[in-house]
TrEMBL record, chain A:
One of its GO terms (biological process) is transmembrane transport. Belongs to the binding-protein-dependent transport system permease family. One of its GO terms (cellular component) is plasma membrane. The chain crosses the membrane at residues 20-53, 88-111, 123-143, 278-297. It comes from Anaerocolumna aminovalerica. Residues 88-297 form the ABC transmembrane type-1 domain. It is a multi-pass membrane protein. This is Carbohydrate ABC transporter membrane protein 2, CUT1 family. The lineage of its organism: Bacteria, Bacillati, Bacillota, Clostridia, Lachnospirales.
From TrEMBL, chain B:
It comes from Anaerocolumna aminovalerica. SUPFAM superfamilies: MetI-like (SSF161098). Belongs to the binding-protein-dependent transport system permease family. Keywords: Cell membrane, Membrane, Transmembrane, Transmembrane helix, Transport. This is Putative aldouronate transport system permease protein.
Length: 312, 321
């Protein structure tokens, strides 16, 4: 019984020592809570705008409490606007194909760099990392891509320039180093397993979490891609979603900025320009797939970043 | 006899070795080809920085264009520094980076420590989930978020100003608020990411150290001061130096999309990366653009090398190369 009391007292003392006290915890919760609100409120706001009636927006602007709710933006997006479907397809196509290819290339490039018995290991490590330090810059890369490699107004222009990322090579190699024992490769070689067989049948299953991390990072990059479209794409049928969103804003900005110059005719057109809510709905439609994939993202990317940050 | 056996064995061993090297090289091939075509080949194009680049209309291939363009030596660089714009953008690039490296580190470390102190784990997890979210969005989407508040016609703030009978602020035309807006946008998108990084490092600290400290009567604040922060120190220093190494580079999307590419805002929003893009695409001056990116590359190169060698001195394991 006595020992029970002692235990109780000790536990109490320990918990007091290990907690920061109620006032401090309240302050922490307020600070973090406010920042978290700042992080998600803009998205919630845009969702609300996308469900607001166009009349309501004309009347009181974007508001957290619209006068009238409406589904018209989504109805319009899904029924009468072919461009949005097309762009949705483009974004999915680019993301899936680009991710598959870039992950394959990344695994194939990082594996030999992880093999200590590979003769040209040092050279190819440098060959890859040097491009993180120095490059031709925008103009030469643009001209080479467009004029020599034919990356011009086609799907390849949206996929090829982002296929390879030296940072991912670092992460992948580190994953191999931390999860694959060298003896395993030696044992496989003694058993007569070919290099490709060893890589895909033995190594890849072990390194699955690392590969998932790279895949998700690449998928995110492809899904959020607008820069390549801005450089190389002219045809509207090829626009990815992000670029479609960007262009629809630019068109309106252009008209608004020049409205006074172009006269009252245009000013009227600008005023009647459709679908404030439609553009916001488009933004929501871009975020929705990310939100769905978010739990995976969080799990794998956190583990990947932690590994990646250990080295580089 | 034994001699011949050795010589019979070693060629086959050498052959196997060579075969292994060739197979491994074949694995590297796709990536290596990509690097040659999209990274190394363009490096030769740097000569454009020393040219008045023109299109050779008879046969406008890239090689022909370069061969037939006029060489102007360092003229492009002279022009670059002749205008006040260039000093302005260099100031912006370095200034924003310096401010954000400091702010980003301090806030992320503080948030990570706060998260680790919260007693209810699911609350901490929820905070982490919410603050990591913006990291996954593109700057295009982020610019819409901002516009929902700042748009002069429909934006929430503009509407509130109208209601209060105040004059509506033309956010996309006046420079003054943009250093703050850009800073908020940067922190909004990136703090979650670095907080998660630091939090992972805190979680990795051996809990027996805290137990020992609390038995010795150390308060939680003392534990943070003498256990948590010293443990984070190497990581803070390395991430800090690495970002100093990239002080001349900036996030193009942030400076291009968030101010909506608005001309009047260039004094506060133009950075090296946006200048390189605009000199090429908007003003159609490939020579100036290449000159600016070459300058950026060279300065950046030495910054990274310096940063890396400092990291090597502190902690060799953490250096990049």
């Amino acid at each position: 019984m006595k020992s029970d009391t002692v235990k109780f007292v000790l536990a109490k003392r320990k918990s007091r020592m290990n907690s920061i006290g109620l006032p401090a915890e309240v302050v922490i919760n307020i600070i973090l809570g406010l920042f978290c609100l700042l992080c998600v409120v803009p998205f919630i706001f845009v969702v609300i705008i996308s469900f607001s009636a166009e009349d309501s927006i004309r009347e009181i602007g974007y508001s957290f409490r619209p006068i009238k709710w409406s589904l018209e933006a989504y109805k319009f997006a899904f029924t009468s606007n072919k461009g949005i479907w097309r762009s949705y397809f483009n974004s999915f196509f680019i993301t899936i194909l680009g991710t598959a290819l870039s992950v394959l290339i990344c695994v194939l490039y990082s594996y030999p760099l992880f093999r200590k018995d590979f003769k040209y290991r040092k050279f190819f490590t440098f060959f890859c990392f040097f491009t993180m330090l120095f490059g031709g810059g925008l103009v030469p890369t643009y001209y080479v891509s467009k004029n020599i490699l034919g990356l011009n107004d086609n799907y390849a222009a949206l996929i090829v320039p982002a296929l390879f990322n030296p940072f991912n090579i670092i992460v992948m190699r580190t994953f191999f180093q931390s999860s694959v024992p060298t003896e395993l490769i030696e044992a496989a070689a003694i058993d007569g397993s070919g290099e490709y067989n060893t890589l895909f049948k033995i190594i890849v299953p072990i390194a699955k979490p690392g590969i998932a991390t790279i895949a998700l990072l690449n998928a995110l990059a492809y899904w959020n891609e607008w820069y390549l479209a801005m450089l190389y794409i002219r045809t509207e049928e090829l626009y990815p979603l992000q670029y479609l969103l960007m262009r629809s804003q630019q068109n309106i900005d252009f008209l608004t900025r020049n409205a006074t110059m172009l006269g009252s005719e245009i000013a009227k057109i600008v005023n009647d320009l459709p679908q404030q809510n439609l553009r916001m709905a488009l933004a929501v439609l871009i975020v929705v797939p990310i939100a769905f994939a978010y739990p995976f993202f969080q799990r794998f990317i956190i583990s990947g970043l932690t590994v990646g940050s250990v080295k580089g | 006899m034994s001699n011949s056996m050795v010589s019979a064995k070693s060629p086959s061993k050498g052959l196997a070795k060579r075969k292994k090297t060739i197979v491994l090289l074949s694995m590297l091939a796709p990536g290596a080809i990509w690097l040659v075509l999209l990274r190394y080949l363009p490096m030769f194009g740097i000569v454009i920085a020393f040219q008045k680049f023109t299109i050779y209309t008879k046969a406008p291939t890239l090689l022909n264009n370069i061969i037939h363009s006029k060489w102007v030596g360092f003229k492009n660089f002279e022009f670059l520094f002749a205008t006040s714009d260039s000093w302005n953008m260099i100031r912006n690039t370095v200034g924003y980076n310096a401010l954000w490296i400091v702010l980003g580190t301090v806030i992320a470390v503080a948030f990570a420590i706060m998260l680790s102190l919260i007693t209810k784990k699911f609350v901490a997890k929820t905070y982490q989930t919410l603050m990591f979210f913006p990291y996954f969005l593109s700057w295009v989407v982020a610019s819409y978020f901002l516009m929902a508040f700042l748009d002069p016609t429909y934006g929430l703030i503009s509407h509130l100003q109208k209601q209060a009978g105040m004059e509506v602020t033309q956010w996309y035309f006046i420079n003054k608020p943009w250093p703050i807006i850009l800073t908020i946008a940067y922190l909004w998108k990136n703090i979650g990411y670095s907080t998660v990084l630091y939090l992972a490092a805190i979680t990795g600290i051996d809990s027996s150290q805290y137990e020992a400290a609390s038995i010795d009567g150390a308060s939680k604040w003392q534990q943070i001061r003498y256990i948590t922060i010293p443990h984070l120190k190497p990581m803070i220093i390395i991430l800090f130096i690495m970002s100093v190494g990239r002080i001349i580079n900036s996030d193009f999307g942030l400076f291009y999309q968030v101010p909506k590419n608005s001309g009047p805002l260039f004094p506060t929003t133009q950075v090296m990366d946006t200048y390189v893009y605009r000199a090429f695409m908007a003003t159609n001056n490939p020579g100036m653009s290449t000159a600016a990116s070459l300058l950026q590359n060279v300065v950046g190169f030495f910054c990274v090398l310096t940063a890396n060698s400092i990291v090597r001195k502190i902690d060799e394991e953490s250096s990049l190369f």
